[in-house]
Specification:
Elements lengths: L8 H13 L18 E5 L2 E4 L4 E4 L2 H4 L8 H11 L10 H13 L5 E5 L2 H16 L3 E5 L38 H5 L1 E4 L4 H9 L5 E6 L13 H13 L3 E5 L21 E5 L9 E5 L1 H4 L21 H13 L2 H25 L4 E5 L2 E5 L8 H4 L3 H16 L2 E2 L5 E3 L6 H18 L6
Parallel strand pairs: 3-13, 5-6, 5-7, 7-8, 8-9
Antiparallel strand pairs: 1-2, 2-3, 4-10, 9-10, 11-12, 12-14
Helix pairs in contact: 3-10, 4-10, 7-8, 11-14, 13-14
The protein binds pyridoxal-5'-phosphate (PLP).
Length: 443
Amino acid sequence: MDSLKEEKNLEESLYERALKVLPGGISRNVIFRQPHPHYVASAHGCYVEDVNGITRIDFVNNIASLVHGHAHPAIVKAVYEQLQKGTAYSMGTEAEIRHAETLCHRVPGFEKIRFMNSGTEAVMSLIKASRAYTGKHKIAKAEGAYHGSYDFAEVSESASPDNWGPVEQPNSVPHVRNTPPSVLDEVIVFPYNDVERTLAILDRHADEIACVLIDPVPHRIGMIRATDEFVEAVYDWTRKHNTLMAFDEVVCFRINYEGAQALYRVKPDLTALGKLIGGGFPVGALTGKAEIMDVLNPLQTPLRFSLSGTFSANPITMTAGRVAVEMFDKQAVDKVNHLAQEAKEQLMQAAKIAGIPLSVAGAGSMMKMHFRETLPSNYRECYEDANHKKTVNTFLDFMYDHGIILVYSNSCFFSTVMKQEHIDKLSETALEGFKFIKPLLNV
Ligand SMILES: Cc1ncc(COP(=O)(O)O)c(C=O)c1O
């Protein structure tokens, strides 16, 4: 199989310039690569062309935010029309009302919605709204779960064997150096999908927790779906303790027409959204029960949670996002989920032929490959040591050099513009990649 590897002069010279003005030469750690990041010239549909003129199939889609691929003509057209009328005003727009109507009419639990500019802000607002509504200030979150960069949300997202403590009572581990101890004290950490231990931990803080935050398909916890039993047990606990049940669907909203919450018998009180609902532009949203969302309502006295944002609900994001969500109708959801299922089966087959262990996690149009026979079931089980990370990176580099862009975590977020031919190319290339890394897996 021919490699696309070539002279990387252009990327090298861009990186040299970047290093002089950006810490580490990057603006977001997720694009960091050695010896240098990759640089894009343009992208259309499911193809990305780099600055050296090499085109690859993109299974990242800006980490799940471009469900219709790059530069979708319907989104480009709608945004272009709005661009000519202005990009941001300090007044309301019909664009934000239309987008709010689209989302609230789509999911029964989305009674009211407030837009912001990132998933981080959405989770931050969710936590603040929970505190404002319940009058309590602690939150509970799963060890290893990523919810963006708000101080409280990032506690224990990078816990490791040397600091995570006993599984019966995981430590609240700072993610950023010198995080105030008071922040750590406010975050209760539980082991994901472990009903018994989680309930015991929650019980120890029964009167203090404003919300239990769950991502039902957490990217950083192996992309393993929260079990019905776990979600229902936590939900029942929250009903008894005046605590809100909160879902982070910033990524996993894509897995079902009505979001991940449609898969469960019980529904969250509040949901954080982002990514796909911005149609390729920065976005976040907090949504849920009207009575709870009313903490944001300035018609109420006293106003419990005052929230502004210079670019929140700007008409570019609102227009692009609405068009993207409208196009992501039931048929589109089924189509992309079917493609992901097909990819999963083909990859399993390829692993069998190559003779390497593989299990594939995920739901709907998101998928993560694990180089092991069976899926891990919690964060500690899917924690990868340096050696394993090196093997994964070798595989990712092989795929990249042969025309396939995967997420750094060995994952794919599929887009509606993909076809069977792209899935075939993924599994054909992966077969060669699996053979390439086989010696590193000691099988
Ligand atoms: C589950 C989850 N929540 C929140 C966020 C934060 O979103 P943003 O990067 O838009 O701030 C992310 C980002 O990847 C995410 O995966």
